[in-house]
Write a structure and sequence with these properties.
The complex is a heterodimer of chains A (298) and B (424). In chain A, 73% of the residues lie in helices and 0% in strands. With 298 residues, chain A is an all-alpha fold. Chain B is an alpha/beta fold and 424 residues long. Chain B has 17 helices and 17 strands. The chains are: A mainly alpha (298), B alpha/beta (424). At the A-B interface, helix 8 and helix 9 of A face helix 2, helix 3, helix 5 and helix 8 of B.
């Protein structure tokens, strides 16, 4: 024990700091908030457009529209007409294909985001100097307004109108939660565990794959879940730039508002987005149970 | 007690001189470690031979570099100078991961893999070495067995379900997984409560009696060092070896004030732990009589003896009473009931430390040595103990005097600088 190395004789077992990311309660509330914000955003956007890009006039349209909302929600006829619209006018298979489109958007972007985040997470963990810049860039990406980020890609050659822009935007939004949790998860691995793994002759690759990532996995998975739920909500904006998914219904409805079937369309989009988020949450709960060692469960 | 004028003492030469030292399993030759940005080396030019099949304890005050030294051996810390010889092979630059698979490593914090079962933890190294499943599973059960854990009960448990003592048993089992010849242990029992620690130490010594591994054991606790070590290296600043010898000799003859201070007071008493009753000549000055002896003969025997107490044995030669002149004067009390009951009985296998404790507690100030059936073998008194201590000290002194002569001869043969063994 030299002066430059901490005296191992005084180290007790390390206390495990609690992680708010472990919370199981997030999704239901989170999904509701995301859906609410998405609809509000759309409403604002449409109102603004309807008022020829005059924001104050747009608020007026919005407030007038909001006044009609209670009568829409508490009207049983609205529900029956919504059901009729879904089953007869639109058809379940069409709705299902929209759901599939939505899932594809989210799945593609998540796949990219997970690969990028885990790679950068490991890199940041290994090279401390990268920590500030990488997490900083990821944070900035999350602060870019979604509407702006989606729109920006239209002008980029090779992306333009369609699903590509939304996939890139969604990937950018998902990086921070996953990356941050990967870094936290890896940093959280007990030093003594790494020390003993190294002492037994596990090389750097085996230590990462067999020890560090499996131990960080529950926290990484929490990051993936948060990012996915966030993504499902934000993906509803995709149709604005020509993308697909359940956002089409919201888009169509808001553009027709207050014409016939506009509310039915919006509801279809919002409700199925929320259902999708709940299903995703259930999926991650199961995945976590299946992929987390019994030795790590509390 | 220490001898400070012994300036010619060189710890490394001790290892070479001790004729009972086994061939070295590991040798550090001029090994040093300087951390970047630091001018002072954490470990400076260390020569150390670790004898095969023994426990070598590295002990020293906090910050002396003993942990660093241990971690230099399996290259958890890469040395900045010198060579490491393992089993006759220079391993200073070989693949460190490959090297570590042949060296068991136990740390104070244990570091079991929490996401793996006990069996998976123990099979870490066997898997790396490419053992087949049957062999690995058999090895896991064997190791759980010898470390005192029932395989059927513990195999599939997770580390969080173990107590501190059990976890360190698994830690030791895991370190032994690949059946390494060498085991490095960094304060392995340091974080365990004293009672469990004592038990683990005893079990580990018993285990080592069977396994005969080469073990390097780091501790800051001199008592643990004395208990665990076949040989002890007392380290000073920058891991400089201040004394390298058996615990007995270090206790009998600390070479300088540093060692003397580090051992602390009571080193003489601690030294008594290494001598056993059957190794010493028992006193024959004491008068001993049988309970049936004629009182006149008893009195004559007592008067002829310089001692103030007389031991009375029963018909089976078992000691029963201590009597003095006052008791003998009272002719009405039979010998079997006269005087004081014999309380201090010691086994020939007892250490002198235990015997001393018995003596201090007894009425007469001496202990009776008895065999397995309780029959008197002789009497141990304080004069005997003093003789033993004197003999131990003079033996150790003679050893170091011989060593000085030996070293002078070596120096004469190797040249005047006296660093004939240095390889750096």
């Amino acid at each position: 024990m030299s002066p430059t190395v901490p005296d191992s004789g005084t180290d007790g077992p390390e206390a495990e700091p609690p992680h708010p990311e472990h919370s199981r309660k997030f999704p239901v509330r989170g999904v509701a908030i995301v859906a609410f914000l998405a609809v509000l955003g759309w409403w604002l956007f449409i109102a603004d457009t309807a008022a020829n890009n005059d924001l104050f006039e747009g608020f007026e349209v919005l407030v007038n529209g909001a006044g009609n909302l209670p009568s829409l929600i508490f009207n049983p006829d609205a529900y029956s007409s919504w059901w009729t619209w879904m089953s007869d006018a639109e058809g379940w298979s069409a709705i299902f294909s929209r759901v599939v489109e939505h899932v594809q958007l989210v799945a593609m972007s998540m796949l990219f985001a997970i690969s990028i985040s885990v790679v950068f997470g490991v890199l940041v963990h290994r090279v401390r100097a990268f920590r500030g810049p990488v997490l900083g860039v990821a944070s900035i990406m999350l602060t870019i307004p979604s509407l702006a980020l989606f729109a920006v890609f239209i002008s980029v050659p090779g992306i333009g109108i369609g699903d590509r822009g939304p996939i890139i935007a969604l990937t950018m939004y998902s990086i921070l939660p996953i990356l941050r949790n990967t870094v936290i998860g890896l940093e959280d691995v007990d030093r003594a565990v790494i020390e003993s793994a190294k002492g037994m002759g596990l090389d750097a690759r085996r230590r990462l794959l067999r020890i560090e990532l499996p131990l960080a996995w529950p926290i990484i998975l929490t990051g993936i879940r948060i990012a996915t739920l966030l993504n499902i909500g934000i993906a509803a904006i995709a149709p604005l730039v020509g993308g697909s998914g359940l956002g089409r219904y919201i888009n169509d409805g808001l553009q027709r508002f207050p014409d016939l079937t506009s509310v039915e369309r919006m509801w279809t989009g919002v409700v199925f987005t929320i259902v999708l988020a709940l299903v995703a949450d259930l999926f991650f709960t199961l995945l976590r149970r299946l992929t987390t060692s019994k030795g790590l469960r509390s | 007690m220490s001898v400070t004028d012994n300036s010619s003492y060189s710890p490394q030469a001790t290892a070479a001189f001790n004729d009972d030292v086994a061939a070295p399993m590991i040798q550090l030759q001029g090994v040093g470690k300087v951390y970047p940005g630091s001018d002072i080396p954490a470990v400076a030019d260390l020569d150390l031979s670790i004898p095969e099949g023994e426990i070598l304890v590295l002990v020293g005050p906090s910050g002396c570099g003993k942990s660093t030294t241990l971690r230099l051996i399996n290259r958890m810390i890469e040395p900045t100078s010198g060579r490491i010889i393992f089993n006759g092979e220079d391993v200073t630059t070989v693949n460190a991961d490959q090297l570590r698979r042949q060296i068991g490593y136990v740390i104070q914090q244990i570091g079991l893999f929490p996401h793996q079962t006990i069996a998976q933890n123990i099979s870490t190294v066997p898997k790396l070495l490419g053992w087949d499943k049957a062999k690995t599973a058999a090895r896991v059960d064997e190791l759980l067995e010898i470390t005192g854990l029932d395989p059927n009960q513990y195999r599939d448990r997770y580390p969080k379900e173990l107590s501190g003592g059990q976890a360190q048993r698994v830690g030791v089992a895991r370190a032994l997984g690949g059946d390494p010849d060498v085991l490095l242990m960094d304060e392995p029992f340091g974080a365990i409560d004293p009672i469990t620690r004592d038990r683990l130490q005893n079990e580990f010594l018993r285990l080592q009696g069977e396994l005969k591994k080469t073990i390097v054991f780091v501790t800051h606790d001199i008592d643990e060092a004395i208990k665990m070590g076949d040989r002890i290296a007392i380290l000073g600043e920058q891991s400089v070896i201040r004394q390298f010898d058996t615990p007995e000799r270090i206790l009998a003859y600390p070479v300088d004030d540093f060692v003397s201070d580090f051992i602390g007071s009571g080193s003489t008493l601690k030294g008594l732990n290494f001598e056993r009753v059957h190794d010493l000549k028992l006193s024959d000055d004491w008068p001993v009589v049988n309970v049936d002896t004629d009182r006149g003969d008893v009195q004559r025997l007592y008067d002829a003896s310089p001692e103030k107490w007389m031991l009375v044995l029963d018909r089976e030669q078992r000691p029963i009473r201590w009597v003095n002149d006052r008791h003998l004067a009272d002719m009405t009390t039979p010998l079997a009931e006269a005087g004081a009951k014999v309380t201090a009985l010691v086994d020939p296998n007892a250490t002198l430390h235990d015997a001393l404790e018995e003596m201090l507690l007894s009425n007469a100030g001496q202990a009776v040595v008895v065999d397995g059936k309780g029959r008197c073998l002789g009497i141990l008194d304080i004069e005997r103990l003093a003789e033993v201590l004197k003999r131990l000290r003079s033996q150790a002194r003679k050893h170091y005097e011989d060593l000085a002569v030996h070293e002078a001869q070596l120096n004469a043969a190797n040249g005047p600088d006296g660093s004939g063994e240095s390889n750096s």
